Amino acid sequence: MSRLDSFIRRMSAQRDCLDRAAELIADVPGPVLELGLGNGRTYDHLRELLPGREIYVFDRRVAAHPDCIPDDRHMILGDIRETLPAANRRVPEPAALVHTDIGTGNEAANLEQARWLGPTLKPLLAPGAVVVSDQPMPVEGWEELPLPAGVPERRYFMYRNR
Amino acid sequence: MSRLDSFIRRMSAQRDCLDRAAELIADVPGPVLELGLGNGRTYDHLRELLPGREIYVFDRRVAAHPDCIPDDRHMILGDIRETLPAANRRVPEPAALVHTDIGTGNEAANLEQARWLGPTLKPLLAPGAVVVSDQPMPVEGWEELPLPAGVPERRYFMYRNR
Predict the structure, then answer these.
(1) End-to-end CA distance of chain B
(2) Helices first, then strands: H and E counts in chain A
(3) pTM summary value
(4) Residue of A nearest to B13 (CA)
(5) What is the ipTM, given to two decimal places?
(6) Which residue of chain B comes nearest to A19, CA vs CA?
(7) Strand stretches in A4-156, DSSP E
(8) Is B104 touching A (CB cutoff 8 A)?
(9) How far is B141 from chain A (nearest CA, A)?
(10) Average pLDDT along chain A
(11) How far apart are the first and last CA of chain A?
């Protein structure tokens, strides 16, 4: 499979998982946490999908399309190893949805980050909150959810916080 | 439609048009010209799709994944306004396929570029060659082709050189 095919599948999987997650959190109050702003495409999708929700975005820097940049209150700049453990200072309520797409080409680094990230996210989540992740994130108290039809196993991951 | 949806559609349209073009040029000898290397995903797709063809890539700089960089003979560096009119020095035969995905966010600049690009490409093409473009490129002697099923009108463009 070419890198173009693989990229289209990954982007489609991300979109389909977020669309499913939006349905799953219909009765769960709380904001959305987006880890990694990047070019802002996924942030744009989230705000279209969940127009009533506050979306807090974490990233080291802002390099997004000018139309896809959150206001200062919702853009939390810095290394997530520092900003995420302190997130309750900026995010006033437990989150209903977290999307994390911060994997790199280095699989060992991704696994290590996911191991740290899950337990760090856990206390920020509302009961019933959904986590959508490009990396596996086995966390005590999170149930792994089936993926939407058409999304191949292990291309994306979805969990529900009990 | 969100920017994520739009991006997925554009990438899928590009892939579907290239797959169709590969069938259309089955009996047309000649190399492939790829205008814009970018991250190299489309170059990777082209070399998988057309394993027997030489692929010449034009870009200002190389910023692709290390696995997706052509060798020096096939990587033509510089501004296409200079390298393309002189391409016959580097590309030994008329091309069977050109893919151009060099549009920017600026629609006026894109239109101006497409107006210049079409007539510049024309003498580099074999009879029956196919042009796949992210911009409309009406050129005397090029027939506009129908798009593959599922590709919305004007998301991508395909032409056949007579």
Answers:
(1) 37
(2) 4, 7
(3) 0.89
(4) A8
(5) 0.92
(6) B5
(7) 32-35, 55-59, 75-77, 95-100, 125-133, 142-144
(8) no
(9) 31
(10) 94
(11) 37
